[in-house]
Specification:
Elements (H helix, E strand, L loop, with lengths): L1 H25 L14 H4 L3 E4 L1 E17 L4 E4 L5 E6 L6 E2 L4 E6 L1 H32 L5 H25 L10 E5 L4 E6 L6 E2 L7 E4 L3 E8 L12 E5 L8 E7 L11 E8 L10 E18 L4 E3 L2 E8 L2 E13 L2 E6 L6 E5 L1 H10 L1
Antiparallel strand pairs: 1-20, 2-11, 2-15, 3-10, 4-6, 4-9, 5-8, 6-7, 8-10, 11-14, 12-13, 12-15, 13-14, 15-19, 16-17, 17-18, 17-20, 18-19
Helix pairs in contact: 3-4
Length: 366
């Protein structure tokens, strides 16, 4: 009786096992798992993998800066005499031509200079006639060589004095009456500063009354921080952009790199000389400068988005025959969306560039 009950119990257990096996065989199969990383096949179907290539290093550096006037094409007008501003006929940003009257001043000094000029011109005429007479007498042995040289010296000194006075007055022209003179533009260009108004007194030690610049050529000044000095070199090609001209790129070359830092901004002001015939680059306009450099060094190259920075180190998710593994790499340089690796990867290696951060987190847990 006992044997019969035992056999019955075995049959019940075997039946339950069979039912369980049948149930497992008919239920939906779960997503297959990657042996090395335990990621679902659905997830793996959506990742993106790239193959590492070896390329020459192309570095790129972005700097801030601004356009400024070329000092060789700019004049700051400081009065050489005392007087009072009667009126001005220009505004900041106006275009002027050389010799154009742009302001009127009243000056007793200028009146005296104009009178001195007239006196010197009259004296010069007399001295020229006297010299002609002295030369004739010298040829006839009626005058010594010393006396002839003295006449020549007086004439020369008067010419020097007249030139000095004339050069000063050339900036003002002839008086308009009542001791009023016109200030004339010393060069053609644009008014970039103005420090004068009607009724304002002026003197030889005044601040510059105005500045004129020819901006058909400008300097672009790039701010180079100490950490970037090793990259920036004279002769490098530069691409310059300004927010005012979206999509427009100006091309220039690094012309000079000073050997001193700006004491206020703590940067080196690299200079790019730019032609500016259409006046699109305005003085003090903010610009962005991009410098590019190609080196004869070949390194493993990958998209920058493949890199994961954690705990002061760079990692990538690399695919191998067993699945996916974390690999530490040493970054040499990074240019925009491209990174150059000096250790940790070789040509032909495959790394994940999409959803790599999620994979990194999962692999790090394991």
């Amino acid at each position: 009786m006992k044997t019969k009950n035992t056999n019955t119990l075995k049959q019940i257990v075997l039946s339950l096992i069979a039912v369980g096996a049948t149930a497992c065989g008919t239920s939906p199969a779960p997503d297959s798992q990657d042996a090395g990383s335990r990621f679902s096949q659905t997830f793996l179907d959506n990742i993106e993998v790239v193959t590492i290539s070896m390329e020459n290093i192309h570095q790129e550096l972005k700097l801030s800066g601004k356009a400024v006037c070329d000092p060789d094409l700019m004049v700051q007008y400081t009065p050489l005499i005392s007087g009072v501003v009667v009126s001005s006929s220009f505004s900041l940003g106006d275009k002027v031509t050389k010799g154009q009257s742009i302001a009127l001043i009243r000056s007793a000094e200028l009146s005296d200079l104009y009178a001195e000029k007239q006196s010197l011109e009259a004296e010069l005429k007399i001295l020229k006639r006297q010299l002609e007479s002295a030369e004739s007498m010298y040829r006839d042995n009626l005058l010594s060589e010393k006396e002839l040289l003295e006449e020549q010296a007086r004439l020369t000194q008067t010419q020097v004095d007249l030139t000095r006075v004339s050069n000063t007055l050339s900036l003002y022209g002839t008086p308009n009456g009542d001791g009023i003179f016109a200030i004339k533009a010393p060069i053609s260009g644009f008014i970039i500063s103005k420090n004068m108004a009607s009724g304002m007194p002026i003197s030889g030690d005044s601040v510059p009354l105005f500045s004129i610049a020819d901006i058909s050529r400008v300097w672009v000044i790039a701010n180079v921080y100490a950490s970037n000095l090793a990259f920036v070199k004279e002769g490098m090609k530069a691409e310059i952009t300004a927010s005012a001209y979206h999509g427009t790129v100006f091309h220039g070359t690094i012309d000079a790199i000073p050997q001193v830092f700006d004491p206020e901004e703590h940067v080196v002001k690299a200079r790019i000389i730019m032609p500016n015939k259409d006046f699109r680059l305005k003085p003090e306009m903010a610009v962005d400068i991009t410098l590019k450099d190609r080196q004869d060094i070949i390194m493993a190259t990958l998209p920058s988005k493949a890199l994961i920075f954690d705990n002061n180190r760079y990692f990538v998710v690399k695919q191998d025959v067993d699945g996916f593994v974390l690999t530490a790499v040493r970054l040499y340089a990074q240019t925009g969306d491209k990174s150059y690796i000096e250790a940790g990867l070789e040509a032909g290696d495959k790394v994940v560039v999409k959803d790599n951060l999620l994979m990194y987190s999962k692999l790090k847990e394991n």
